[in-house]
């Protein structure tokens, strides 16, 4: 019996990707790409900005993946990198908002990565009742809790001033110059990692294209939608240019076209409508959370995507049959043999992809934010 159990363990281990591969896929999952190459490109882009930020992101993905493995979490989720992206974002969030040079921040980030992994398992279990993905909900909940509570603890927040601020009316110019459009376009991508650096956004976008040309084009369309929507509503040009108005639009576009819904013209329209909705929702969420010291983070993306996915079940044209999925463009990483896998439906509890587990009737990919 003992030797039989060891043989089964050895067989499972032989078919499991290495820890570093799972870690890099977790980084790639920040933009819905379960590609080690994309994760490596993201890590390199962060290094260009600040090696300490890269260390926090990589360390966070490693801790989240390790926690899931230590607690016996589903192997298919670890393989797809689904246990690493929430912890990577949380560690990076703490580094940006609480000071990346402080040992207390590093210790808090390590503890938070373990807790958010447990929170991810809870979110997967609860949302599977409605066959909805957890997305970045665990990260958002813990990030808001810590940033709101931080001023109450001197060791965590020794800076004196509070994070709380009353929301005010928009001010400043609303016209965009031509050179600012390119900055806004790339900043919408770089803000996925809390950065306002156009060259970092360009490198991150290259990482998405490395995994899938279709996903890269959809990300570009989402960024443009965020810019146009904010400009049409006369949002302050400063907020459009720095990317804080449009980064949620990039995530929503990726999620609703090619990840949870098939990549098709009708779903592209639906995804861009969702991207515009998330852009409008961003200042509303910021206004609700700012009096308590919280930030919007990716709440607009989570709320918009969950709402649009739930509504999609009422619109048959947004879903696809297995034959249509197999014939459609594959939005995913190439297989180990270099071939590009077909999109297909994934039964509950088996090989979850994207930011989804158990979404039986949602659009899924054979690679996995």
TrEMBL record:
Q: Provide the membrane topology annotation.
A: Multi-pass membrane protein
A Pfam family annotated for this UniProt entry: UT
Keyword terms: Cell membrane, Membrane, Transmembrane, Transmembrane helix
What InterPro entries does the entry give?
Ammonium/urea_transptr, Urea_transporter
Give the chief site where it resides: membrane
Task: Specify the domain of life of the species encoding this protein.
Answer: Bacteria
Cell compartment(s), UniProt? Cell membrane
Q: Enumerate the residue ranges of region (Disordered).
A: 326-369
* Protein name, UniProt field: Urea transporter
Q: Which species?
A: Streptomyces rochei (Streptomyces parvullus)
């Amino acid at each position: 019996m003992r030797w039989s159990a060891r043989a089964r363990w050895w067989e499972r281990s032989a078919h499991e990707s290495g820890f570093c591969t799972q870690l890099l896929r977790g980084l790639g999952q920040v933009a819905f790409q379960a590609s080690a190459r994309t994760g490596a490109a993201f890590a390199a882009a962060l290094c260009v900005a600040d090696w300490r930020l890269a260390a926090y992101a990589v360390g966070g993905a490693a801790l989240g993946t390790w926690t899931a493995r230590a607690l016996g979490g589903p192997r298919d989720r670890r393989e797809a990198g689904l246990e690493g992206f929430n912890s990577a974002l949380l560690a990076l969030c703490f580094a940006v908002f609480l000071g990346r040079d402080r040992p207390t921040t590093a210790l808090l980030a390590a503890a938070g990565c373990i807790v958010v992994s447990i929170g991810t398992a809870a979110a997967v279990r609860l949302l599977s009742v409605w066959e909805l993905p957890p997305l970045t909900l665990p990260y958002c909940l813990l990030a808001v809790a810590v940033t709101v509570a931080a001023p109450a603890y001197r060791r965590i927040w020794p800076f004196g001033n509070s994070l709380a601020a009353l929301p005010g009316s928009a001010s400043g110019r609303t016209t965009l110059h031509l050179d600012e459009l390119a900055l806004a376009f790339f900043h919408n991508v770089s803000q996925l990692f809390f950065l306002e650096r156009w060259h970092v956004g360009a490198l991150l976008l290259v990482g998405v294209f490395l995994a899938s040309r279709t996903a890269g084009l959809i990300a570009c369309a989402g960024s443009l939608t965020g810019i146009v929507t904010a400009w049409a509503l006369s949002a302050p040009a400063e907020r459009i240019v720095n990317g804080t108005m449009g980064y949620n639009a990039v995530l929503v576009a990726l999620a609703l076209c090619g990840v949870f819904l098939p990549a098709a013209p009708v779903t592209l329209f639906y995804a861009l409508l969702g991207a515009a909705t998330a852009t409008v929702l961003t200042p509303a969420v910021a206004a609700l959370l700012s009096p308590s010291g919280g930030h919007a983070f990716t709440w607009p993306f989570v709320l918009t995507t969950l709402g649009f996915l739930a509504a999609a079940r009422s619109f048959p044209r947004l879903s696809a049959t297995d034959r249509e999925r197999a014939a459609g463009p594959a939005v995913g990483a190439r297989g180990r043999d270099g071939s590009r896998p077909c999109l297909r439906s994934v039964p509950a509890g088996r090989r979850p992809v994207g930011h989804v587990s158990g979404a039986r009737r949602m659009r899924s990919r054979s690679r996995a934010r």
